[in-house]
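Hi support team,

I submitted a single chain yesterday and got back a structure, but I'm not sure I'm reading the token output correctly. Could someone confirm the output below corresponds to the sequence I sent? I've pasted both exactly as they appear in my results page.

Thanks,
R.
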Amino acid sequence: QVQLVESGGGLVQAGGSLRLSCAPSGVIFSIRDMSWYRQAPGKLRELVGTTAVGGGTTYADSVKGRFTISRDNAKNTVYLQMNSLKPEDTAVYYCNVHVSLFGKEYDYWGQGTQVTVSS
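Hi R., thanks for writing in. Yes, this is the structure output for that exact sequence:
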């Protein structure tokens, strides 16, 4: 069973930067969208942003101008560059990969990586 492996989380001071990575443990075919979500304590999981297979990228209003999502299609890897971090960005961050294959849709999820921003 292929899994998504995340890395790059940690503790950072407000105003700092972190870069998250998410790569599969094996081969995944027909990847379409690649996304990052986050879930803060006591809150619902929310979409941070999505990069489409065609190259378009969208972001939540709360992170626009501070976060950048990129992907390496050769490695099936997605990245989240987070700059100007704020305490309210503290959450567990999850990557998601959406696959469309033979008329079926699949989603893979990472295990989550903790990001903590201190004030």
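A quick pointer for reading it: The longest strand covers residues 91-101. Let us know if anything else looks off.

Best,
Support desk
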